[in-house]
Structure formats: structure tokens, C-alpha cells
């Protein structure tokens, strides 16, 4: 598989994630968009690492990114649950108070 195809796929995933983050009002969908952008970065890391004949640095770095993304998703979802319990909504526009 040529490198250009894989990089185009990564760019497409990143653009889809960015579009989701910018346009969606639901906090869960914003987290999904961030995860899409992180996965696009992982696709690019693995694609560039495939063409490095010596090492596997791209795959190792992608594993670290996956680990950090899993922790980010867990913490983000916990925050969304607590915000939903307090405000009774997951809409970003309706959450405008910082004090409770």
C-alpha cells in the first residue's frame, strides 16, 4: 500500500475529527472527535514507521498515544457524567456556569 494513500486516510480521519469537534454541541461527540484526531495521528505514525527499515519507533509511540487516549477518554467521560448530573444536560452551549 503506497504511503500517499495512508497519509490521505490519516488526513481524512483528522479532518472528520476536527469537523466533529467544531460543529457538534454534545460533549460526548466532541470527545469522539478528539479520539478520531488521535487515531489519525496514530495512522500517520505507523505509516511513517513502516518505511523506516531500522526501527519500530512509530509503532511504539503509537502505543503510548493509545494509552494516553484511553486515559483521556476515561477522565473525559467521568467529567461529562458529573457535569450532566449537575446541569442535567450534555449540550455545551447550555453549560455556562462555573460555580455551583
From TrEMBL:
Enzyme Commission (EC) number: 7.1.1.-
Transmembrane segments: 30-48, 60-81
Membrane topology label: Multi-pass membrane protein
Molecular function in Gene Ontology: NADH dehydrogenase (quinone) (non-electrogenic) activity; quinone binding
Enzymatic reactions: a quinone + NADH + 5 H(+)(in) = a quinol + NAD(+) + 4 H(+)(out)
GO cellular component, one term: NADH dehydrogenase complex
NCBIfam families (UniProt xref): PRK05715.1-2
Known role: NDH-1 shuttles electrons from NADH, via FMN and iron-sulfur (Fe-S) centers, to quinones in the respiratory chain. The immediate electron acceptor for the enzyme in this species is believed to be ubiquinone. Couples the redox reaction to proton translocation (for every two electrons transferred, four hydrogen ions are translocated across the cytoplasmic membrane), and thus conserves the redox energy in a proton gradient. NDH-1 shuttles electrons from NADH, via FMN and iron-sulfur (Fe-S) centers, to quinones in the respiratory chain. The immediate electron acceptor for the enzyme in this species is believed to be a menaquinone. Couples the redox reaction to proton translocation (for every two electrons transferred, four hydrogen ions are translocated across the cytoplasmic membrane), and thus conserves the redox energy in a proton gradient.
Identification of the protein by name: NADH-quinone oxidoreductase subunit K
Gene that encodes it: nuoK
Amino acid at each position: 500500500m503506497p504511503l500517499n494513500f495512508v497519509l490521505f486516510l490519516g488526513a481524512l480521519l483528522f479532518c472528520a475529527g476536527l469537523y466533529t469537534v467544531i460543529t457538534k454541541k454534545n460533549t460526548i461527540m466532541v470527545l469522539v472527535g478528539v479520539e478520531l484526531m488521535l487515531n489519525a495521528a496514530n495512522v500517520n505514525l505507523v505509516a511513517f514507521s513502516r518505511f523506516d527499515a531500522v526501527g519500530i519507533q512509530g509503532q511504539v509511540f503509537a502505543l503510548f498515544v493509545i494509552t494516553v487516549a484511553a486515559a483521556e477518554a476515561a477522565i473525559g467521560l467521568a467529567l461529562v457524567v458529573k457535569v450532566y448530573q449537575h446541569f442535567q444536560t450534555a449540550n455545551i452551549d447550555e453549560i455556562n456556569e462555573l460555580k455551583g
